[in-house]
Every structure is written in C-alpha cells, then in structure tokens.
Amino acid sequence: MEKLINLWQFIKPKIRYIFLIMIAISIYNYYNLSKNTAYLLLYLVNILLFILSFLLFEKSNLDDGSIKFFIMCILCSAFIFVTVKSNFYYFMLMDDLFDIKNKDKRKILIFIHFSSFIVSLLIMYSVIKRIALLDSIISILLLILYYCIALLILFIIHKYKDERDKLKLLNSKLIEYSFKEKDFAISSERDRISQELHDSLGHLLMALSMNVKYVKSKVSKEKDVDYHEIEQIEDLVQESIKTLRGTVYSLRKLNGNFNLKEELNKVIGKFDNLNMVSILFDYDDEIENCSVNIKNILIATIKEAITNSVKHGNSSQIHISISLEHYTLKLAIEDNGSGCSNIVKSNGLNGISNRFKSAGGNVTFSSKKQKGFKIVATIEGSASVD
C-alpha cells in the first residue's frame, strides 16, 4: 500500500496533464465530426483547466485561497464531462479534494463535486441524449453507484494516509524527545561527576593543603627536618588542586570528543527501525578531524532537519552529504517532501542558521512546492579543524 501511494503521488501530476491533453484531442475529434463552432468554446474551457491546474496544484496551498479555484475546476470539468463524455479529470479532482486538511471545506467541496456530477448526468441524458428520465434512471443510478464506490475507495486510502502521517508525526516527536532526553542525561551526568569531584576530592585536597601548611609552620624551626621536602609536598598538593579545578571546568563545559559518523548512524538507525523515511548518507572521513564544536553543530542540524522533514514535509527519502575540501566544510540535506512556495523560518530553521553563524559559516534554505526542501551549509577556513 505504501509503495502504491508513493508511486501515485509521483505520477499524479503527470497523469493530470495527460488527461487534459486527452480531453483536448476528444474535443478536436468532435469538432471535426460535427463542424460545430461550440466545440471551440470547449477548447477555451480546456485551456482554462490547464491554467487552473497549474495555479491550484503547483502554486497554491489547498487550504489557503484556492477554494474558488477548486470550484471553477469542478464546474469546468463537469461541463466537459457533459459535452465530450470524458470524466477522467473530473474523478481525478475527487482525489485532490481529500488532500484538503480543513474538514469543513473538504465536505463542502465534495458536496459540490457530487452535486455537479448529478446535474451533469441529468443534463447529459435528458438534454443532450434526449432520453426520458424514467428510461435512463437505471443508468444514472448505476453511475451514481460507481461514483460512491470511487468515493469510498478514496476515503479509505486517504484515511490510511492520515493515520500513517499521524503515526509518523508521533514517532518523529518521540525520536526528537529521545534526542533531547539523551542530551539532558549526558549533561546531568557530566554535572554530577564534576560536582562530586569538587565536593569530595576537592575538599580532601584542600584539607591536605591546610595540614601541610600547618606542619610546615610547626617544623620551620626544627633543624633536623628536611624543610625542602615539605615544600615539594605542598607544591604537589597545589598542582593537584589546580588540575582538579581544570578537570571540573572541562567537564562542565564540554561533552568531549566523539565519533560523528557513529553518532549519525545511530540517529539514522532510529528512523530506519521505524520505517519512517529512507536516509542516504554520504560522509567524508576527514570530518572526524573537525573540532567538537563543529561536530555538535552538524549533529544538531541533521537531527533538526530529519525531524522537520518527517513532521512537516512528509518526505519518504532524505539525502545527507557531508564533505571537507580545501578547509571548507559543506553540509547538504535534501528531501523529496511536499516542499513549499514560501519559506517561513521557524525556531528550528533559525536555530540552524544561528549555529552556523556562531562558527563563522552560512546556511541557505531552498524549496518549491512538491519539489522537496534543501539545506546547504558551509564553514570556511581552517578554524573548523583541530
């Protein structure tokens, strides 16, 4: 089912225009047979459908400002359905109706679609074919039954898609939560260890330092005591205290170095295990020479990009590429999701930009509706390498 749905989403835009071309050919054939100039009007209607299809399905959002376009498409295709008996495009619109997220708008448009279908049938049989209503009632009821079956099938398919999308969204949120929980656990454990070192070993060393000073003051007048050895002990204790303070500071400040490729494979594995999205990963091993700060920026960006792609883009495939050439690091992340015609930067995208800017890099975001989303980030200069 999943593969069939993805295949349909891929070929649907192409089939849409093929159907419109078929309608144009049918109109041309009818015109040649009848030499009726009324079919020239149908050509204009067909051209209008081409324009509406492009505006509606390539440039507009189905939930915002496109309802009038949808109604016009339904009426135009119903008009062609009556005159040239070509109902491919008309029933294709039925599938598009289920892509509208607003349930109230969707119900209204399905009602308009169904009503125009009934009216089209009545006009076709009673006016064009000049068949009495009682004689054509069985044919009309049969076509209505076919319509209802098609509507039911599409309802089941889109219900499955909605449940699948909800599950993907829930899983992506769980994975996102697990990322944050892991970071919090690491940070908490690091703080606990540093605090424990400071409270226990630090206090012991300070006590030892005070005792050495006390002994030093007591034996300063004794001639048979090697005063130089006591000073060496004191210096050693002071050096230990200094080293401990440096260790505690480092624990509080850094996560420590890690293997970026292994960490990213763990992230990818979380999504692969749930069959949420297929992730293609190209990696330059030279990246391991980058600083811990750069690695943290990369892994945080990739986590954010994957979760956004699944949650908002509904993508089935993501390609991640990390390379390092001539001291320039490049990260490219591209998906095949729904994309958008206008990018509105969320907190996540702003976070990605700020991370790279803090390291002297830059980020570009690009997207087109139904053409996926792409992130390209670069950091130039040897400062990114240890």
Automatic annotation (TrEMBL):
Pfam families: HisKA_3 (PF07730)
Domain Signal transduction histidine kinase subgroup 3 dimerisation and phosphoacceptor: 189-253
Enzyme class: transferase
EC number: 2.7.13.3
Transferase in keyword set: yes
InterPro entries given in the database record: HATPase_C_sf, Sensor_HK_TwoCompSys, Sig_transdc_His_kin_sub3_dim/P
Keyword vocabulary terms for this entry: ATP-binding, Kinase, Membrane, Nucleotide-binding, Phosphoprotein, Transferase, Transmembrane, Transmembrane helix, Two-component regulatory system
GO molecular function, one term: phosphorelay sensor kinase activity
Superkingdom of origin organism: Bacteria
Transmembrane parts of this sequence: 15-31, 38-57, 69-88, 108-128, 134-157
Any one GO cellular component localisation term in the record: membrane
Catalysed transformations (reactions): ATP + protein L-histidine = ADP + protein N-phospho-L-histidine
Protein name, per record: histidine kinase
The organism of origin for this protein: Clostridium oryzae
Name of the gene this protein is made from: liaS_1
